[in-house]
Design a protein that fits this description.
mainly alpha; two-stranded antiparallel ribbon; 6% strand; 2 helices
Length: 159
């Protein structure tokens, strides 16, 4: 019975040791991560200062100037992408056409109302989809090469 208790005690001691070791290792890893984050923030600050000095003409080094030019290109591309994202965020699905007789929603290719059977062609123009309302629009998209291409159909954007 003593062997069992001693074996159990050694197992508990080993588990306690491993737990303590893992906790200490995790604390050290956490501190390393925090230090790396602080270092990255300082490097970012240095980079921003160098860019500002290049833009103001106070720092003129060929290698740094090339990188500053790349940063300006990235800033311009980011501004374009942010404008593109803003346009995407403003997109809305056009309202569906409705039957003038019963108010039912009409499928795009409907000839007759699926609920009441009224001819869609006999309906006033206000309830039938117009070119800018029901039909998807193709918008030009500038490619990385500077060329333009028509994009896939997209919902309309809010005014």
């Amino acid at each position: 019975m003593m062997d069992f208790v001693d074996s159990l005690r050694r197992g508990v001691d080993r588990a306690g040791f491993e737990l303590d070791r893992l906790l200490r290792a995790n604390r050290v890893r956490s501190r390393i991560h925090a230090l790396r984050s602080q270092m990255d923030e300082e490097l970012r600050g240095i980079g921003l200062q160098v860019v500002e000095l290049c833009e103001s003409g106070q720092l003129v080094l060929e290698q740094v100037s090339e990188r500053c030019a790349k940063v300006k290109q990235y800033q311009a591309e980011i501004a374009k992408k942010e404008a593109e994202l803003d346009a995407i965020n403003r997109e809305v699905l056009p309202p569906a056409a409705r039957c003038a007789s019963c108010g039912a929603e009409l499928p795009e290719d409907a000839i007759f109302c699926p609920r009441c059977g009224t001819s869609v062609k006999a309906m006033p123009q206000a309830s039938a989809p117009t070119a800018g309302q029901g039909a998807p629009q193709r918008i030009p998209v500038e490619l990385e090469t500077g060329e333009q291409e028509e994009a896939r159909p997209s919902p309309q954007t809010q005014e």
